[in-house]
Amino acid sequence: MRLYNTLSGEEQEFSPAGDRVKMYVCGVTPYAPCHLGHAMSYVFFDVLRRYLEYIGHEVEHVQNFTDIDDKIIQRAQESNTHTDDLAQTHIEEFMESMDSLNIKRAHHYPRATQEIPQILNVIDQLIQKGYAYASDGDVYFRVSRYDNYGDLSHRSVDGMIAGARVEIGTSKENPTDFALWKAAKPGEPSWDSKWGPGRPGWHIECTAMSMSYLGSTLDIHGGGQDLVFPHHENEKAQSEAYTGQSPFVRYWVHNGLLNMGDDKMSKSLGNNVSLNEALKRHGADALRIFFLSSHYRSPLTYSEEGVSGTGRAAERLANALREETGDGTGDLDPGPYKVRFLRAT
C-alpha cells in the first residue's frame, strides 16, 4: 500500500516501523455537536485502519479529545455549566454518532485534562533544553531554536515572520513563537504549575497524549488538511525538540475538507450540518458512500442532492445482496468478491 506523505509531498510505500501500526488521529474539541466535516475525516481514517487490518497489520489507534480550550470555556460560561460537564455531554454524543456511522472505536481516547502531569513534564523538558521559555505565567516554544520549522507545511519561517502579528498583551521573543502553557484568567479552570496556574496550549496536548500511548515515533498521524498549519507543524517541532529524535511521524496523512459552498464546513463559521440530523435524514450507508465518493485528499462539497444520490446507490447494493441471498438475511460467500477486489488493488 502507498500513502501520500504530507511531509515529503510524495506517495510512499507504507510499512510500519515495528510489529504494529501506531496511528494517532486528532480528535474533536467537544464544545458543540459534531458535524459532517468531522464525520468525513473519521470515516476515511476508519477505512484506512480497516484496510491495514485487512491486509494483516495490527493497528493501535489513538484519538484524543481536546476537552479544555477557549471555545469550551466560552460555551460553558454562556450556558452556565462547568467545562467538564459540557465536554462530557458532547463526548458521549460524539461516540454515539461514530457508532451509528459504523466507525470502529479507537483503542484509546485520551483527554487533555487527564494528561496534565505528562504535559507539564514535556513543557519543563523543552524549557531545560532551551526550546521554550516562560513569560509572565505563559510558556512559549522558541521557533528560532528548531531548524526544521516549516518543513511539514512547506512554508518559510521568514515568510511567516513577515506576515505575523504580535498578540496584544503578550511578551513573546518572536511573533511566530506559540503557546505551550497559558496563564489562567480570572474565573477560568486552571492547574498548578511551576510557572503559575494555567492550562495547556492546544498543540502540546497532542504531543503529550500521543507519546504517552504510542511512544516517541508514530507510524501514521492523521487529521484534516486544515490542521497541517499551525497545529501539526507546531506539534512536529515540539515533539522532535522534546525527544531529540526525528522523525516524530513517519507518514503524515491529511484528508481533504468538506465544503459548504465556497467555505469549509466549520462549527466556528456556523455553516455546518449536524451529523445527527444528517443520519436521521439519510442513514449511515448513504453518508459513508458520499464521503468515499471522491479522492480522500480532494475537497468535497456537501449537497442534499449528492447525499440522496449515494442513498440510492446504497439501496442498489442492498438489492444486489437480496438477489444473492434471497431475502438479504442469509450468508453471502465473500470469497469471489475478495479475489476480484485484490486483483483490482
How would you explain this protein's 3D organization?
Among the domains are: 2-117 and 204-260, 3-Layer(aba) Sandwich (Rossmann fold); 303-345, no CATH class. The protein contains 11 helices and 13 strands. The protein has helices spanning 36-54, 70-79, 83-100, 116-128, 157-163, 202-214, 228-243, 275-282, 284-291, 304-325, 335-344, and strands spanning 2-5, 10-13, 21-25, 59-63, 132-135, 138-141, 178-183, 198-200, 218-224, 249-255, 258-260, 263-264, 300-301. The longest helix is centred in the C-terminal third of the chain and has 22 residues, at 304-325. It is globular, with a radius of gyration of 22 Å. The model has no long low-confidence stretch (mean pLDDT 92).
Task: Tell me the layout of helices and strands.
Blueprint: E1 2-5, E2 10-13, E3 21-25, H1 36-54, E4 59-63, H2 70-79, H3 83-100, H4 116-128, E5 132-135, E6 138-141, H5 157-163, E7 178-183, E8 198-200, H6 202-214, E9 218-224, H7 228-243, E10 249-255, E11 258-260, E12 263-264, H8 275-282, H9 284-291, E13 300-301, H10 304-325, H11 335-344
Parallel strand pairs: 3-4, 3-9, 9-10, 11-13
Antiparallel strand pairs: 1-2, 5-6, 6-7, 7-8, 11-12
Helix pairs in contact: 4-6, 6-7, 9-10
Report the sheet-strand fraction: 15-25%
CATH superfamily of the domain at 2-117 and 204-260: HUPs
Q: How many beta-strand segments?
A: 13
Which regions have little confidence, pLDDT < 50, spanning 5+ residues? Answer: none
**CATH fold name of the domain at 2-117 and 204-260:** Rossmann fold
Radius of gyration: 22 Å
Helix content: 40-55%
Assign the CATH class of the domain at 2-117 and 204-260.
Alpha Beta
Form type: globular
Gap from first CA to last CA: 9 Å
Mean pLDDT: 92
Structural class: alpha/beta
Reported CATH architecture of the domain at 2-117 and 204-260:
3-Layer(aba) Sandwich
Helix and strand element order: EEEHEHHHEEHEEHEHEEEHHEHH
- Structure annotation, total helices: 11
- Please give the largest β-sheet: 4 strands, parallel
- The main sheet orders its strands as 4-3-9-10
